[in-house]
UniProtKB/TrEMBL annotation:
Cell location: Membrane
Main location as per UniProt: membrane
Transmembrane domains' residue ranges: 27-48, 60-81, 102-126, 156-173, 182-202, 214-235, 256-279, 299-326, 351-369, 375-408
Molecular-function GO terms, alphabetical: L-amino acid transmembrane transporter activity
Keyword Iron-sulfur in annotation: no
Protein name: Solute carrier family 38 member 8
Keywords associated with the record: Membrane, Transmembrane, Transmembrane helix
Any one GO cellular component localisation term in the record: membrane
Membrane topology: Multi-pass membrane protein
């Protein structure tokens, strides 16, 4: 989400590589389901109405969702089983233990790149919402948008730069993050947006009838496959799933399968309800559904604020996770040269990595045309965590491996083209 942590459980995933959780309360069934929902629900919700349009209609998109659900749940069960036999408590540790150091290093690279692209997606979402939030400036100048003079300080991209350097960066540099990791704003924003989309569909003066497919530029099958990256991004909680499984009180595989099925079905229902956004705007729906609504819409203004604040609190967690994966091998090497030197080098590397991470993601976000391009890339990377790595852990079947490799290649190719 986001994501995708994509929220507080992602931090758990990075720290639970330490000894098993023998102390403190364990997760029950409902707690595990809730944390999986927190991990999955997020910014991906913004892209689902556009995905319905791109898939060629409601029937095609729901069909792909249902088929994908089988592989999504299977992957979660495989990961839980792999964690139980390897006695490891993070995704990367399980892959490294069962598949060797080479595949483990590939997993870490994919993990870092996935976090990096999620950071880009978050900034693209914030940039889109800043572009829409011009109501206050219009009120201050008493001028319509078409007559407002252009100043660099009124450009939404300038506002994004200020936000990154004066708010996000100070929150991202500290070694430990405390308050942000307990946020539930991502889940709240996703739930609020879903309800708002349904309300707007039934309250808007005219809603066109879109029962027939409206978008099929690449043919029926091509259109259906083009929705898979969005599904992978939206349903992706597989990186956090091993940490969740390791934290559960009841770790029987049948119980974990039940938790996985319930969580994925709830996600399916919530994401499918965004079909009302597609039914409202048809093939003209924007890749970010919030961009399809007027900047004066008060109901959607609240959704923009919720997503903006949630991203500002989640982004530092993503930076911390990516930075820790890069720093850990360096710190183990520096520790041999003395504790004092290691502390000094850790501080310098933390500043350098944080500044480079934020500046690079900011530059990419400023020039990406819309969030669909970023989600296509993230969906391709997600195929590794959902399809490819799970099949390397077991002998579930060559079909899953082929599907994962195909989705990665297809979605990445679409994003580049």
């Amino acid at each position: 989400m986001e994501e995708l942590a994509r929220e507080s459980i992602s931090l758990l995933a990075s720290t639970s590589a330490k000894p098993p959780l023998d102390v403190g309360p364990r997760l029950g069934s409902m707690g595990a389901v809730f944390i999986m929902l927190k991990s999955a629900l997020g910014a991906g919700l913004l892209n689902f109405p556009w995905a319905f349009a791109r898939a060629g209609g409601v029937r095609s998109a729901v069909t792909v969702e249902l088929i994908s659900l089988v592989f999504l749940i299977s992957g979660l069960i495989i990961l839980g089983y792999s964690s139980s036999i390897s006695r490891q408590h993070t995704y990367q540790a399980v892959v490294k233990k069962l598949c060797g150091s080479a595949i483990g290093q590939l997993c870490e690279i994919c993990f870092i790149f996935n976090l990096f692209m999620i950071s880009v997606a978050f900034l693209v979402v914030v940039n889109d919402q800043l572009e829409k939030c011009n109501t206050l400036y219009e009120l201050a100048t008493a001028l319509p948008k078409s007559e407002m003079p252009y100043h660099f300080y009124t450009d939404h991209r300038f506002a994004l730069v200020l936000l990154c350097f004066f708010l996000i960066m100070p929150m991202s540099i500290p070694k430990e993050i405390t308050i942000q990791k307990y946020t539930v704003l991502g889940t709240l924003a996703a739930t609020y947006l879903t309800v708002s989309i349904i309300i707007k569909y039934f309250t808007m003066p005219t809603a066109p009838d879109h029962r027939s497919p409206l978008y099929s530029s690449t043919g029926a099958w091509g259109s259906m496959f083009s929705v898979i990256p969005t599904i992978c991004f939206g349903f992706q909680c597989h990186e956090a799933s091993i940490a969740i499984y390791s934290s559960m009180e009841n770790q029987r595989l049948s119980h974990w399968a039940f938790v996985s099925v319930v969580a994925m079905i709830i996600c399916l229902v919530i994401y499918s309800l965004t079909v009302y956004g597609y039914l409202t705007f048809g093939k003209t729906v924007a890749p970010d559904i919030l961009m399809s609504y007027s900047s004066h819409d008060k109901l959607m203004l609240v959704a923009r604020l919720l997503f903006g604040v949630s991203i500002i609190t989640i982004y530092p967690i993503i930076v911390l996770l990516g930075r820790s994966v890069i720093q850990d091998p360096l710190l183990s090497r520096w520790r041999r040269r003395g504790e004092a030197l290691m502390v000094k080098l850790e501080c310098r590397s933390r500043w350098v990595l944080t500044v480079l991470w934020i500046m690079t993601t900011l530059l990419i976000a400023l020039f990406v045309p819309d969030i669909s391009k970023v989600i296509s890339v993230i969906g391709g990377i997600s195929a590794f965590f959902i399809f490819i790595f799970p099949i390397t852990l077991t002998i579930w079947g060559a079909v899953t491996l082929i599907c994962g490799a195909f989705i990665f290649g297809q979605s990445t190719t679409i994003a580049v083209m």
